[in-house]
Design brief:
Spore Coat Polysaccharide Biosynthesis Protein SpsA, Chain A; 11 strands; single chain; elongated; 505 residues; nine-stranded mixed β-sheet; 12% strand; two-stranded antiparallel ribbon; alpha/beta
Length: 505
Amino acid sequence: MTRPTLSVCLIVRDEADMLGPCLESVARLADQLVVVDTGSTDDTVAIAEAHGAEVHHFAWVDDFAAARNASLDAAAGDFVLVLDADERLAPGAADAIRAVMAAEPADAPPTVYLPLIDNRDAAGQALGADFMPRLWRNRPGLRFTGRVHEQIGRGVDGLRRAFDDRIRIRHLGYDPALAAARGKRARNRALLEAERAERPDDPTIGFYIAKEDYAEGLDESALAGFRRAMRGSAVNLALSATLFAVECLRNLERFAEAVALAEDRLARAPSYGDLWFVAGQAALEGGDPDRALALLENARRRPEGLAAIAFRDPSVAEWRADLVTARALVARGRAAGDAGDLGRAAQLFDRIRPRLPDDARLAADLDAAELAVLRRRPEDAWARLEPTLGPAPVDGADILLDLIQLAVEEAGLEPAYGLLVRAFSLQPALLHRLPLVGAAAELAEALGDGRGRAQWLHICALLDSPHPEHYAALALIREAEGDGEEAARLRDRARALGPSGADER
């Protein structure tokens, strides 16, 4: 039996930074590489040709469908796979594509396969996932429509859609910084508005315009758009719109409304784990950890039916739900004084830590350090806090201050002072945190370390401390050293700030 052939089709413009890795990811899969260039001024065309692509030129007419159809017209394979330059096949995707092509009979009804598009930022962190039409048997009648967020096969009788999360494509183009730098937001909005002018009642266009508002932080406008999409769209798109509407309500701090909206939709789509997750987040942020924990129990569910083809963030089941569950346990345990909840949270932080990406691991380590302080375990708290002082000294400063107070209570003044001095030596940026330096001055005074106290008080003054007692105490030290002029200046500063400590003797 002859193996079906595959044409990989792209449209590009000024994609020199992105195109090479994309073409490399399909090099062993594609029988034909079709690249339609819409006006590049960089090395895009040369890179495409170096990878063996057939390069065609198309004058850009503000219409993605027109350019895509030009690439389909040049495709000679039995099947076509449509990619963008900022996409790459994920491991295993090539084998899954071969299996799909081999399994489809030549006389099968027109079928479009929708892989899972795994959106990533520049650092590789997940930004959520959607199913998008990318693979089908090459048929003359299967063509794109729509200036942007173009659709394939609109109006084709009997068209089937097959959602296949075995085929995963990693997409980097939704990285906020990258999208802004390349003008994608403004371009997409202009094209969407042109589409809306022609089809004002199309809920799909309204949904994508709401997503543009959401990406730009226009939560009120986005919320209204998502609510309209919830009412007028197909069920899977309505579910996606509900998820984004809940996120808008969270951003607007309308937490009870967010939970109610999610629960109403979950009654009809109980397997939509991502919606359980955002509802749990909203409940926690609204001050109801009990409700949050009940909702989060369902956040790891594998979506079924129409929920399986709605927007999805794979990291929810992989680690996000567990991380928010740990935070909810801390919130409930803190409020109720429940050592059991706090212990379970500590165990969960430890269990999920190896699964976390770097930025989430840093935040979780800070949470775990704060939890260890709450559980009155100073050694454990320091072990968790110390690695965070390099990448996040500001975030760890308040936790360190609480840890020093705990160390005073549990171990005494000298060990606490030693711990604080060690923290300063490990991360000098902490010397810019006035509460920590002030604590060092107090500990030095309590321990009779006059030289150390003078040093810390001097740093407090350099930090423009708002506490008059710092200047008054430093004035006494300078006076004892014979520097009357400096002592007078410091006393004037203390009096200007207020009476407290200004006349300390």
